[in-house]
Amino acid sequence: MDWKELIAIAAGHGKAAGLTQTEIARRTGAHQKQISQLAAGKVEPRFGFALRFFEAVGIDFVLIARDKGHKTDEK
């Protein structure tokens, strides 16, 4: 899964919660145009902004450390 897919999921969650792009912008400290471009997949966010975006739409982004020996499936 890439950033565009994660942002699309988060944007859909925000929309379902009744949040406007203007409200998400207010919550993240960004401009509405930035939120629009992000939601449309026109830009990739920096990690810190992505975290603020997820928080603004009500999604917790959790990182979990794995054991050294754990292997992930690669495409």
Task: Please tell me about this protein's structure.
The protein is mostly helical. It has four helices and no strands. Helix 2 (21-28) packs across helix 3 (32-39). The radius of gyration is 14 Å and the shape is elongated.
Share of residues in helices: 40-55%
Q: How large is the share of residues in beta strands?
A: under 5%
Radius of gyration: 14 Å
**Helical stretch tally:** 4
The computed structural class is mainly alpha
Net shape? elongated
Order of helices and strands: HHHH
Q: Stretches where pLDDT falls below 50 for ≥5 residues?
A: none
What composes the largest sheet? none
Number of strands: 0
Describe this protein with a few key phrases:
elongated, mainly alpha, 75 residues, 4 helices
Give the helix/strand layout.
Layout: H1 3-16, H2 21-28, H3 32-39, H4 47-56
Give a concise summary:
It contains four helices and no strands.
